[in-house]
What does this fold into?
Amino acid sequence: MHIINSPACGACQIRLLDVAQGLELSTKERAILEHAQRVVTTTMPVSMDDGSTRVFTGLRVQYNDALGPTKGGLRYHSEVDAGEVQELAFLMMLKNSLAGLPYGGGKGGITCDPKKLSTTELERLTRSFVRALGTTVGPETDIPAPDVNTGAQTMDWFVDEYEKMVGHPARAVVTGKSVSEGGSLGRDSATGRGGVYLLEKYAQEQGWSPKETTIAIQGFGNVGGWFARLAVELGFTVVAVSGSKGGVYAPEGLAKAALETALTSKTFPAGKEITNEELLALPVRVLVPSALAHQIHKYNASTVQAELVIEMANAPITVGADDILAQEKVVVIPDILANGGGVTVSYFEWVQNRAQESWEENKVNELLKKSMLDAYERVSVRRKKVGNTLRQAAYHESIERILNAERARGRV
Ligand code: NAD
It folds into this structure.
């Protein structure tokens, strides 16, 4: 295992320089925000089912711990590298701060193609990663969670191996576990649900009736699927959904029953077949990118016809595209605000584990709603004061809270 102080994270710097204008950061404050505190790299020889041994690389970035233990997901993907993980850890730092959680930001992953590994190989790989990370993670230090290609099963293996290593129960070392292993009710739907609370609030502010509010959703997995289902339940008109190979468009709106059937059978509801590029350019009121990063870029941003974009994926809009959308007066609810519902309920899971409690789903959803709307209110007030975009206002709110903690600790 190697622990290094990280070089400045390029993509983070660009975004920070772009949106933190007006905060008048000192050189030291900027340096703190632009560098991860710690990057842990691990090398893991793992036995394959055919008896061979393969060596995998894993990473964990602990970006900033001024507000508390670092927290963020673990992804298994062939493109996991230090630059990407640092950018995502930086975003987690901002998201956790904006949500008012007692957490710093972290992120991690293993460079691998999980589709080419068996379940037993994934289990051995996960357990090797836990041993390689050792006590650099823990309920009081750094708390991983599921992310791309990891889920409740990965977290259950993680806890089991961690507890063997430390010799005592430690469920709060990760969140996103299965409910029988200490996971929280409501975590599965939390990210999509949190986004829908913001959709509902914004529509009310604008005087949009739900029925007349047409929505296109890119990504029909956990986040996009829950967003679609809950928006339709509230009477919004979801006209398009898509996956990696394209999607469907039904201008009259997708019926709740058809959506449920599609989500259960992992298919698409009936509609005209469209590509992902066509989905982004549909004549809808609200566009909800819920799949991958960098989907709206400077070459397609001007095709967006929506009045509102809710960033449910992490970083689905590039910096260049953000400028184009702002010029076109398209309002963007930024990722660090829009998709904060997931980590908020992860925090509730951590609290329940530590208190040895198990909350009812209604309680989880009510607390989530309050947290999402409080954060939205703080960002809206800040935007009125400084007259910039919701993204800038969200960054200002978030960075100020982190720097206040840094100052209180005497680190700047
Ligand atoms: P998921 O794997 O359940 O779903 C991803 C969806 O994206 C799938 O429908 C997939 O078909 C689609 N997709 C993949 N490649 C695509 C492409 N090239 N074009 C269009 N669609 C494509 O993942 P998820 O948990 O729903 O996460 C989606 C996004 O939300 C990710 O950016 C993730 O980082 C972010 N996010 C998730 C959570 C959470 O709690 N799950 C929390 C915060 C942020």
